[in-house]
Amino acid sequence: MDESLRTSSPADALPSAEAITVNILIVDDEPRNLAVLESILDEPGYRLVRANSGEQALLALMAEEFAVLVLDVRMPGMTGFELAQMVKDRKKTARIPIIFLTAYYNEDQHILEGYGTGAVDYLHKPVNPAVLRSKVSVFAELHRRGSALEASNRMLLGEVAERRRAEERLSELNASLDRRVTERTHALQVSEDRLLEAHRRKDEFLATLAHELRNPLAPVRNAVELLKRPGLPQEKVAWATERIDRQVHALARLVDDLMDVSRISQGRIELRRTPVALNDVLADAVETVRPLMDEQRHEFAMLLPDDQLVVDADRLRLAQAFTNLLHNAAKYTEPGGRVELGVLIEREQAVVTIRDTGIGIPPDRLDSVFEMFSQVESALTRSRGGLGIGLSLTQQLVQMHGGAVKAYSDGPGQGSRFHVHLPLVTARVAAAEPVQAEVEAADAGSGQPLRIVVADDNVDAAETLAVLLELLGHSVWQANDGEAAVRLVAEHDPQLVLLDIGMPKLNGLGACRQIRAQPGGEQRFIVALTGWGQPHDLQQSTEAGFDRHLVKPADAPVLEQLVAQLPQRRPAADVRDTG
Predict the structure, then answer these.
(1) Which of 114, 168, 243, 362 qualifies as a cystine partner to 119, CB 3.0-4.6 A?
(2) How many CB atoms lie within 10 A of CB 30?
(3) Under 8 Å CB-to-CB from 447, ≥6 apart: which residues?
(4) pTM (whole model) above 0.90
(5) CB-based contacts of 337: which residues, under 8 Å, 6+ apart?
(6) 287-346 confidence digits (pLDDT tens)
(7) What three-state secondary structure class fits 99?
(8) What angle do CA 17, 19, 24 make, to 5 degrees?
């Protein structure tokens, strides 16, 4: 058996009674008598303590514990009887056996007086050694056994106390274990509920995404069918193309929101922060949402401070956050409602408030409206569209600018308000003091026709882009893979090359490198026109040699501006005519 697992009993830890050394106090005023007593009681198990007066004996009794007291009756000063009475009166020594020694033979008187003071025995001098040893041994053995029993009792009491402490500790551990099991069970239940909720939201999101993608496709398809009709009046053509353009922009916005959420969640979005006037940011957002406001016939009120408030922000991204809030306010307010925008200063922060008279938010949904895919309306009852990612995206963009956004509502049908807190660079800047901002002016260009190569494995995308560029007066050649694009560039020496990245045979990155390696390749303007828009995608296209990186679908005005400015970007000698 493993010795470390053995348990010891109290008997194992205690010495035997025979091994205990007992103290014996001998008291006599005659040194010779003390010497005789010492010689009689000289045994290994005894420790003899001498006292030649009652006073010395009292001091010894106060300092130590004795098994027996051998006491001379007649002593100068304090007699043996007086000492015995004091021993009996003291609680600590009252139970010590006393053997009186006397040389007098007035037995009745001495014996009665001795027993009256607590003596247990009475011997006459000269003492019979055997009798004295026998009597002392009896009391010594009783004392040993009593001491052993007392020690055993103490050990047992200690063991009982230790076991009680162990039981209490075990009880505490059991209670702690039960509590932890309960907490863990609750945590698992909460986690399971969250997973189920996330799963439900995912399913609802996918269904909503399919619904939202089909919604703009339906009018696009109808408009296309309308355009196929022969003899269609010009106003109907304009009407159909306007509907197609609007729905394409809606699809692009949907995809952009999805991509932004992905970029933020992966930490791939970088803010280009500069000091910018908050009024300018809000004006950008209002301009974006104004068509929806007008369409819904909303009354719109805006109260901005006279002084410019400056924030350290990415103007485009911060405007996107306010656009989402204003767009929601307009979308979730019945036609003819009211939307308000106001700005206050609070503790060196700008507080932007957007208030509407719309459908409101239930109190239990105020904290969850910023969660991904969360919407106030159910999937089947909502008629206003959306994926439920706008508010989540807004919250993340505001937090990236060091701010916070919170929703308030008095309940369904009571409207909503959103407060956006943003730190200010400086509390106030005079309104006359300009704030630096990027201004892009479109250059009308010289109108000179260009030679252009368009490469995209999506045939429809390549053809529609080629037709658009041809209508602008340019010569265009199409390719549907990277190798064909490289050949066309070598054959026609174009000034502008538009390359998709993901193409068969040779991708856009490889095609760009090969075109740069051709004679005159360094002078060509090469643009990546692709659905890949992550920061590392832009870095790859730059490393491959592209001049610009545009994400599909690129707006027609952007392409027109790019083409219009291109002849002025290249020296005249670089624009060669091979025809």
Answers:
(1) 114
(2) 12
(3) 473, 564
(4) no
(5) 296, 298, 299, 356, 357, 358
(6) 888 888 898 899 999 888 877 889 999 888 898 889 889 988 998 899 999 999 999 988
(7) strand
(8) 85
